[in-house]
Amino acid sequence: MIKGWLVVNTFLNLEKFQRVYQMLEISFRKWGIVLSTKKAEDISLKVGFKLMDKPDFIIFWDKDFYLASSLKKQDIRLFNSPNAILYSDNKILMYQKLKEKNIRIPRTFVAPKTFEGINYSHRGFLDQVIDEIGFPIVVKEAYGSFGEQVYLAKDIVELNRIVDEIGYKDFLLQEFISSSRGRDIRINVVGNKAIVSMLRENNNDFRSNISSGGKGSFYKPQKKYIDLAIKATKALKLDFAGVDLLFGENDEPIVCEVNSNPQFVSTLQVTGINLADYIAAYIVKSL
Ligand SMILES: Nc1ncnc2c1ncn2[C@@H]1O[C@H](COP(=O)(O)OP(=O)(O)O)[C@@H](O)[C@H]1O
Ligand SMILES: [Mg+2]
Question: Which residue among 3, 4, 38, 94 is the one 20 to 30 A from 153 at the CA level?
Fold first, then answer.
């Protein structure tokens, strides 16, 4: 009998995450596969641990690169792979990889490295960004989701306030795609196929995330949007992904970001499509 693990984060206990885990379990049960949910502490915290009883595959729904790579070393197939998770989780690595693969992204700049206690103690580095893209400027922490670590600065006063609040965390600065204000497309890709898309709109905020008040609706994107979403998923070597695309000038698609663990409860509510079923079918076929 095929055995799978669903590795989840130790500390996140939000209802919306629990729902995703349940949906995956139910979808695998339809294939006669029992998916056991595991947290890091149920596996092992010890460096160099060896598993006695290995599963046939792991759906890695955490972002813990250390744990993912220890599991991968034991010849277990991980969906998504440790490197793909690493590159999608860190927006700086993600944009660097997308650009390397000639994928269109907003013009993006990386803040120089700093340290705790020193923070971004002088701000001269902001000048080259302001000179090149002007205001408003999008600021994103390297790690973040649900739009919560994404900010928009309309002038230098706001920009400095945001950078003060970021403390010493890694961040990037980015061109604001004004033709896409409060609006983007989420395209869900599984195994290099676009499964379902949503238009997300928010009239009260520049961010269209559903969790920050955006409204989702079923949407059939133009082919160039679908092709770009698949290309971005491949660039990051993800088995499955939720790709956010912005509407550029003349409707040209621009990649906003790529998520390794898309939140598919809202997709189900809005479109009636259950991505967990697609992920299960894809994994069963790949084994
Ligand atoms: N450069 C940009 N120009 C215009 N809107 C943006 C830009 N970057 C992000 N957004 C908006 O902010 C939202 C959140 O940004 P995103 O990079 O997807 O971060 P998160 O991981 O928090 O979802 C996007 O869905 C989009 O609506
Ligand atoms: Mg997003």
Answer: 94
